[in-house]
Design a protein that fits this description.
Radius of gyration: 23 Å
Shape: elongated
Largest sheet: 4 strands, antiparallel
Order of helices and strands: EEEEHHHHHHHHHHH
Strand order of the largest sheet: 1-2-3-4
Distance between the termini: 65 Å
Helix content: 55-70%
């Protein structure tokens, strides 16, 4: 390994003989090192590598800005999170979550705390990720003796969901707001509140999550197409639920200027029938 950049006394940016860049850490590893100098990998305590060159650069810059222990803590949290989820996580989670946690700890030290206006929605729509966020807060408290605002669990959950869906944080907020608005339309239409803990409601929310992702992506993937006879049968046998699906389509068009396909309307109709049956 050759030194590409000395970040500080404990962190180096190195490249291997194939030109692959990585961040390596170790006590005193960067002390008096020079660019181009060879360094023994046996001295490395931790190695961080991103497949994307853009993400690798962000990681290098982040390492120069936050304490090393915050990066290590975040890496440990992500390893735990990966063990609890079946969905692959975007590698950028290490950067975004480490940056967020480090900033949250700094803000706490300065007496500045934020609340998440979407906390209630996140608890309801992303319960698994929210519980992981709560776990992270407990580990952070244990490791740093700092009690972060409970609202931080929702922020951490958003970073996890963002890594699951491979979206930007801005799109993640848009997705959450769309889910929230859609459920308001649904409950107003049926004039009842649905059981947030039910399996069918959870399935509906998961569908809305990926449905919203398709809407906000630059090149949306299409929902599975249904043949005309099947669509006609669903429309005829589920008139009330199809009407609600159409209202959802109108809401999305009005709020986001996005068109909902006929196939999506049919899929929404099927989910709406399911959550109504389970609520009886």
């Amino acid at each position: 390994m050759r030194v590409k950049k000395v970040i500080n006394n404990n962190i180096l940016c190195v490249v291997d003989d194939k030109g692959s860049e990585m961040i390596v850490t170790g006590k005193g590893l960067g002390f008096k090192r020079k660019i181009g100098e060879r360094v023994d990998p046996a001295l490395f305590e931790k190695t961080y590598h991103m497949e994307s060159k853009a993400e690798q650069r962000k990681l290098r810059e982040l390492c120069a800005q936050i304490p090393l222990e915050h990066l290590r803590l975040t890496q440990d949290l992500i390893e735990y999170i990966k063990g609890q989820l079946s969905t692959p996580l975007n590698e950028s989670l290490l950067i975004t979550l480490a940056d967020h946690i480090s900033f949250a700890l700094k803000r706490k030290e300065e007496g500045i705390e934020f609340t998440n206006p979407l906390q209630g929605a996140i608890m309801s729509y992303y319960p698994t990720e929210y519980h992981l966020g709560q776990h992270c807060l407990r580990v952070i408290q244990k490791e740093t003796q700092v009690d972060l605002n409970p609202s931080e669990a929702a922020f951490i959950a958003m970073h996890i969901v963002n890594a699951e869906l491979n979206t930007s944080m801005t799109v993640m907020y848009d997705i959450t707001k769309l889910i929230e608005g859609t459920l308001e339309v649904v409950e107003y239409f049926y004039q009842k509140t649905f059981d947030r803990e039910s399996l069918d409601f959870n399935r509906f929310v998961v569908h809305l999550r990926y449905f919203a992702q398709r809407l906000f992506q630059a090149a949306p993937q299409q929902c599975d197409e249904y043949d005309a006879d099947f669509q006609e049968m669903i429309i005829r046998s589920c008139k009330q639920h199809y009407k609600c699906a159409r209202h959802i389509g109108e809401y999305i068009h009005s709020a986001y200027q996005k068109e909902v396909s006929d196939a999506e309307l049919i899929y929404l109709t099927i989910h709406l029938k399911r959550i109504n049956l389970s609520s009886k």
